Amino acid sequence: MHQLKDHDIQPPEELFGLVAEQLKINVEGLTSDSHESDLREFERLKDNSVEPPEIVTEKIMAAVHQQTSTITPTVSLLKRSAFRIAATILLLAAVWGIYTLVSTKDNKSPGKDIVTHNDVPIQNENRPISKDSLHDIVIANRKTFRASHKKAYSRNTGSRTHQTGRASAEGYDFAIKDNDLLGSFTNFNYRQLPDFLNEEDSRSIQVKTDHSTSITVSEGMVSMMKKMYKTKRNGQFTWKAKRERKKLLRWKKADANFFDKNPAKNPMDPFDLAEFIF
Amino acid sequence: MDTSGNILHFPPVLIKQAAQGDPVAFKELYQMISGKMYSLCLRYASNTEDANDLFQEGFIKLYRHLSNYRFEGSFEGWARTIFVTTCLDSLKKKKVQFTEVSEEIALESKGISAIDKLDMDDLMKIVRQLPDGYRTIVNLYLIEDYSHKEIAGILGITESGSKSKLHKARNLLKQKITAENI
């Protein structure tokens, strides 16, 4: 360890400059005043000329020749620039056009209708009644969930709705069309989606069909309904929403097969409903 | 080609023609300037292979930017700036530590009269023997006439750092000059 006494480490060289600066010593002057002229000789190197190797010259000439063929006259460059500017403007115009078009579509999408319309299709009871309530409601008012699933409902075009009862759920009153409790119950207007579909957690709810009858909609079913109303940013339905809707349509078909074939059967009748369910 | 150190005159017509892609004009321009620029590259590079690469790169850059020359300063000065920048960029890519101490050098320095006896090739040889960091400072300050402020800006060091490095580079140069004369 005693050897460390004689050990020395060169400090960073900028420290010398900093120390000199603090001591107001002209670092340059330490050497330049007396001996600068000694090194002035090196300035001569600035004008020194060394012939580059022939192969290097050839390489440079080849590279330059290659580039020369790609050089175009200034006029041509100007023309090209003008074309580029024109193309850019056209492209921007096209993008703006598409954007405007998409924006307009978005305004017409169900999500936007929630804000702009006050219609309540399900509860409109003054319209003519036909057999299939759901599609008619869509035709009369294109702001419901079904309106955005035209393909799925297109098979029923031309039929009319029949009101076959009323029900309420969590304070929301709705008409039942053509004995289709399920379809009617799930055909909410976007603007008036009930609170239980907007809540974060799903919970079971009760649908009251009269003073003494109520149907409990399970937590799973409410969760499914919530998924059914999900939209993307552009207002289009998510694939999950579409999937849930298809599932519901399958159930509706089963419902129609059971009740529509026999007019005596009534979904409001607990026995008929129980028969359907079980 | 000029080898005497005289200031070369570059006819503007020649530069314009070369800028427009005239190979004959460019060849002529090349012949006029190549010797000095190659010498510059040899001074900055650590070996001949690197110097050749820098020379090529510099000339390609010069050719590409020829149309940007505004005929305001000397053409040689403008070309020299391109080559110096090319060389410094290469050194930066090599991560040369401009603030690193590479050798222990005695701070005491003495005047050297022997330098007068050295010819251009000897001077060139001595400069090329210097470590990268010192060589760059010597090139920029002693040969290219850059100020310490400019060097500090170019190399990303402090002005004091540039001064102290030059001081040490000078001492090293003197050691080498003495050794050369022995």
Give structural notes.
The complex is a heterodimer of chains A (278) and B (182). By secondary structure, chain A is of the alpha+beta class. Chain A has twelve helices and four strands, in the order αααααααββααββααα. Chain A has a four-stranded antiparallel β-sheet with strand order 2-1-3-4. Chain B is an all-alpha fold. Chain B has two domains: 12-93, Rna Polymerase Sigma Factor, Chain: A, CATH 1.10.1740; 114-181, Arc Repressor Mutant, subunit A, CATH 1.10.10.10.
Strand segment count of chain B: 0
Give the largest interface pair and sizes: A-B, 42 and 63 residues
Q: Report the structural category of chain B.
A: mainly alpha
As a whole number of angstroms, the C-alpha radius of gyration of chain B is 18 Å
Helix content of chain B: 55-70%
The total strand number of chain A stands at 4
Proportion of beta-strand residues of chain A: 5-15%
Q: What is the second-level CATH architecture of the largest domain in chain B?
A: Orthogonal Bundle
Element order of chain A: H for helix, E for strand: HHHHHHHEEHHEEHHH
The first-to-last residue Cα distance of chain A is 95 Å
CATH topology of the largest domain in chain B: Rna Polymerase Sigma Factor, Chain: A
Cα Rg of chain A = 41 Å
Provide the descriptors you would attach to this structure in a database record.
heterodimer; A: 278 residues; alpha+beta; 2 domains; 4-stranded antiparallel beta sheet; B: Rna Polymerase Sigma Factor, Chain: A; 8 helices
In brief, what are we looking at here?
In chain A, 51% of the residues lie in helices and 8% in strands. With 278 residues, chain A is α+β, with helices and mostly antiparallel strands. Chain A has 2 domains: 74-108; 117-277, no CATH class.
